[in-house]
């Protein structure tokens, strides 16, 4: 899974020891590496794809889910450290964007090289107070209704009582991360940031553009067809946009020796 260690936290489908750029992807609440895995087919040869594999799903289904942002990001910081000697780009969708932001903050605080570019996809800014939502503490009936309204869980899964009995604790843990996190600091992270937004997302454009306040670099903004889960419904289009962005970032860098 990982050629530098046997970390269950990182899925690297095509290890590339000669990669000059590492694209590190953080999934949304309830999400998995599935949202990013197809991108390995279209990324430039000089990019290695690294996906965060959260506990409680996939091959880690039997493991306890993470429900504390500080503990989670401390763990990810440790797991990612061997991969940060090259240029990196962080991509996070929804909750994943805030997890990536916290990992970046801790990297900066520890003096470790952070990403050269940050992509916040389908996410309100880190300073938004979500505590009033309390999605994670809803009754099972209301929780499933909320999931149905979000349109990110297949109807056949929501209607399968046995599957939902197994999966609800995982989803509750992820939503607890989302509901209880709010960044109240004032520091700006030193790189450019790109915001990806679904045209039909319930998160307002203003809430997403406010990512600018948390970075000292330039903000760019790109809209996609689809709702909050446009990353899945328009996965290839989003992947191509990520590829285009990477090539634009590194167009002036010397990559002629990449084979």
UniProtKB/TrEMBL annotation:
Signal peptide location: none
Residues in Thioesterase domain copies: 22-237
Pfam name, any one: Thioesterase
Segments forming a coiled coil: none
UniProt record similarity statement: Belongs to the thioesterase family.
Record PANTHER family: S-ACYL FATTY ACID SYNTHASE THIOESTERASE, MEDIUM CHAIN, THIOESTERASE
Name of this protein: Thioesterase II family protein
Organism of derivation: Pseudoalteromonas rhizosphaerae
């Amino acid at each position: 899974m990982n050629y530098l260690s046997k970390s269950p936290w990182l899925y690297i489908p095509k290890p590339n020891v000669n990669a000059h750029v590492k694209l590190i992807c953080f999934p949304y609440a309830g999400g998995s590496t599935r949202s990013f895995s197809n991108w390995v087919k279209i990324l430039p040869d000089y990019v290695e794809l690294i996906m965060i594999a959260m506990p409680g799903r996939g091959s880690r289904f039997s493991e306890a889910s993470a429900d504390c942002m500080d503990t989670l990001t401390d763990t990810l910081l440790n797991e990612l450290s061997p991969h940060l000697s090259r240029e990196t780009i962080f991509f996070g969708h929804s909750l994943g964007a805030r997890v990536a932001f916290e990992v970046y903050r801790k990297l900066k605080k520890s003096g470790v090289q952070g990403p050269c570019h940050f992509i916040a996809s389908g996410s309100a800014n880190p300073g938004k107070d979500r505590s009033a939502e309390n999605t994670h503490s809803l009754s099972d009936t209301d929780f499933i209704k909320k999931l149905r309204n979000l349109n990110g869980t297949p109807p056949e899964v929501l209607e399968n009582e046995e599957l939902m009995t197994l999966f609800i604790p995982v989803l509750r843990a992820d939503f607890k991360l989302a509901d209880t996190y709010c960044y109240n600091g004032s520091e700006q992270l030193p790189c450019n940031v790109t915001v990806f937004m679904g045209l039909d997302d319930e998160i307002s454009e203003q809430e997403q553009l406010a990512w600018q306040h948390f970075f000292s670099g330039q903000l760019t903004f790109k809209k996609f067809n689809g709702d909050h889960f446009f990353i899945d419904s328009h996965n290839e289009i989003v992947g191509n946009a990520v590829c285009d962005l990477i090539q634009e970032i590194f167009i002036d860098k010397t990559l002629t020796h990449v084979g």
